[in-house]
Structure formats: structure tokens, C-alpha cells
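The instructor's notes for this session suggest beginning with a concrete chain rather than abstract definitions. Hand out the sequence below and ask the class to guess, before any prediction is shown, which regions might be ordered.
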Amino acid sequence: MAGCCQHCAGPDESGGRVWRRVLWIALVVNAGMFAAEIVAGVAAGSAALQADALDFLGDSLNYAISLAVAGLGLTWRARAALVKGWGLLLLGGWVILSTVWHAVTGSLPEAEVMGIVGMLALVANGAVAVLLFRFRSGDANMRSVWICSRNDAIGNIAVMAAAAGVFGTGTGWPDVVVAAIMAGLGVSGGFQIVRQAREELRRTRNGAMEPVLAE
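After discussion, reveal the predicted structure:
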């Protein structure tokens, strides 16, 4: 974990404007990809694509929350990060249940659709991750956004690997395995965010102060 100065001090006015602009771009990209991927996931019968689509939805909500608290102090940003962290944990739980259902029913997804949509999602998330890279060492709220974007890009690569596995084996198990991995990423990221947000809230209760970000 980086030193306190990185987490206690918000970005300057120029940095705050850049942060909000990046969040708006990320919000639009993720909302659009959620709509495209949930339709493709249901049509293709892919647990991995549906899990990835739900992740896009969660990220869209996360970006919206981050925009709402972008000009506020550390306490409010940490509270927002705490909500997002618990949201990731809940999404991870949903993916686990969905994965179990697909494993039990033995459904066979359409590998071609998985591969094409996974590639489009990777391009979208890769672009967002590049934009967010400079904020990866910020406070819990900023770091939570970076973690979500990073996990998404990893998940997209995994979806493409699952598509290749389904195509090569003729079974749905690669899809199930990837969905389980994505659930693990979500749960792990959620725990990281919750832990850091709680630490920042503890510091503010102990008297650590931070200036409000400029609008």
C-alpha cells in the first residue's frame, strides 16, 4: 500500500477534471458493452459472457457512483468505495451460482459468438484501462475503478480462451472454468477495495483531514 500522502491528498483541479472526463468515457463504454454482451451471452448460452456482461453493468454503476463523489472529501469517497467493494462481492457470488447452474445442466455455448464478443469487450476494456492507469495508486475510490477495469480486461482474455476451449473440446467446461475464475477475480477485488476503504475511514475518524477536490 502506498504512503498516506497518495491516499489522503486528492488530485489538483486539473487532475480532478481529467478524472471526471475519464470516468464519463468509462461509464459510456461499459454501459454500451453491457447491453451488447448480455444479449450475446444469453443468445450463445455462455456463462462466461453473461458473467462478463454483469461485470460491465456493475462497473457502469461504479463509475456513476465515482462521478457523484468526485468532488467530495476522502470520507465520502471511501464510503463510495466501500459500497462498490461490497457490490463486487455480491456480483462474484452471483457469478458463482450461475456457473454452478451451467455446470449442472451441461449446456454447450456457441464458441464463435464468445470469441467475437470477447474480442470486442477486450478492445473496449483495454482502452478504458489505459485511460485509468494513471489513477491506479490513488485513494480507495480511484483504486477501485482501476481494479474493476483491470479485472475486466483479464476476464475478456479469459472469455476468448474459453471460446477456443469450447471450440476445441466440444464441451461447455472451458466456459464454466472461466466463469469461475472471473468470480474469483471479482471477490478478490472486492475484498481489496473494502479493506482499503475501511482503513481510509478509520484514518478520517482519527482526525486525518483532506481538502475537498475542486470542481
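Then share the key points. Residues 173-205 form the longest helix (33 residues). DSSP finds seven helices and no strands in the chain.
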